[in-house]
Write a structure and sequence with these properties.
The protein is mainly α. The chain contains 13 helices and no strands.
Amino acid sequence: MKDKKNLRPLEEGIKLDISERKNYGGYLCLDTLFAAQKPLSDPQHHDEMLFIIQHQTSELWMKLIIHELTEAIRCVQIKRLGRASKILARVKQIQKQLFEQWAVLETLTPSEYTQFRHVLGNASGFQSVHYRQVEFLLGNKNKNMIKVFPEGSESRATLEQVLASPSIYDVFIKHLYDEGYSVPEELVNRDLRKPHVFNQDLMDVLVVIYKRPDQHWAMYALCEQLVDVEQSFQQWRFRHMKTVERIIGFKQGTGGSSGVNFLKKALDLTFFPELLKLRTEL
C-alpha cells in the first residue's frame, strides 16, 4: 500500500488574482510595518531586534487600549453601561498581553543589553505618548508630564486635549450624579486637567452600591471592571519595574530618570481610590 503524500491540493475557490490593499499584506500594510524595525547598533547586535519589536508591539497594544477606553467613556456618557463594561473587559485582556510580553524581554541579559544600550541615546519609555494617554484616560492627570514633549508638536497637542477631557472615572462619577446618587457637585464641576482626589462622600455612595449590588447592578458591575483594569495596570507597572531591575539593576534610565526607583514611585499611584478603599470599609 502506497503512503499518501502529505499534500493538500489548492481549493478551486482560492483567490489567486489579488492586488494592493485587497490582499492580506496590503490590508495590514505589512510592508510599512516590517520596514519599521531599524536597529542602530553597528555591527548589528542580535538582541536589538528583540528590544525594538518588544516596544513597538507594546505601543500597538496601547494604541488599541486608547481606542477602547475612548469608546468606553462615550458609552458611559450615553448611559450604555453594559457596553462600557464589555469594552473594559476587553481592555483587561489587552493588558494581559502587555503583561506577558515582559517575559520575552526578560530573556535579555545585562551583558547582552549593555552591548547596544548606548545607541538608544535619550530614548525612554517615559516619552511614550500612548502610555501617557492611557494614564490620562484612566484619570492619572499630571500636566507636568507633558513638558517632555515640544511645544507645538502633535504629541503635545494630543496630550493637552486628553488632559482636558474627562477620564473614565470622571464620566462614571458624572453618571452617578445624573442618576440621583449623593455625589458632591464639586466632583462633577471640577477642573478635569487635575487628578481626581479621594472623596469620602463618593466612597459612601459606592459603599451603598456594594452593599446592595442587586439594586445597583449596572453600576456595581462597572465598578468591578474598573477595579480589574486598575489591578492589571498595577501588575504591568510592577512587572516593568522588576524587568528593568533584572536587566540594568539600579542604573539611571536612558531618559534621565532614576530608573527602578522612579518606577517604584509609580506603584503608589491609583486611578480609583474610593473603589479600592471601600474594601476596607465593607
